[in-house]
Amino acid sequence: MPSIDSPIGMSMPSGSTFDHAVRTAAPRRGGDHAPEKQAITRRVIASRKSVVCHGPAALLAAVAEDGSHAYAGYRITAFTNEEEQMAGNADKAKWLLQDRLTEAGLTVRVGEPFAPHVEVDRNLVTGQNPASSGPLADELLKKLG
Q: How many Å apart are CA 17 and CA 83, to the nearest integer?
């Protein structure tokens, strides 16, 4: 059984079980995720297991088979448009993460740029930026009991 000391990757076998999935980064500028990763994301949601995510771009792949977004209505945080601008990336990006998540129906809550900010909604824990890693880990530990 995988543990925090021996995690499984995104190519896990279809029969794998898990308590939490952690996504620390996602290839945000590359467009949508591969179909097999979309299927895994849907399976995580359907299992009603907790999803812990510090790479909220991965949530863009969580489209149900009927075309609806599995996380529509969830309250999250993610790297913000303002942070992209301040980092000098906004004008180079094909799209901005905050915008795409909002368009997908998620409620994106924004904290101060580059300061720790975490949102917890149901089984989903998200962190706004790298400074959020510590508080996000604290929330994960609470969920793990």
A: 36
Q: Which two tokens mark 48?
A: 């009603």
Angle at alpha carbon of residue 93, lines to 90 and 94, rounded to 5°:
135
Report pLDDT digits (tens) over 104-132: 999 999 999 999 999 999 888 888 988 88
Q: What's the pTM?
A: 0.73
d(CA 115, CA 131): 6
- 86-to-9, 81, 82 alpha-carbon distances in Å: 32, 9, 6
In 3D, which of 71, 52, 75, 73 has the Cα closest to residue 63? 71
Torsion sign across C-alpha atoms 112, 114, 115, 121: positive
82 sits in which H/E element: helix 81-86
Q: What distance lies between CA 132 and its chain's CA centroid?
A: 13
- What is the average pLDDT score of the chain? 76
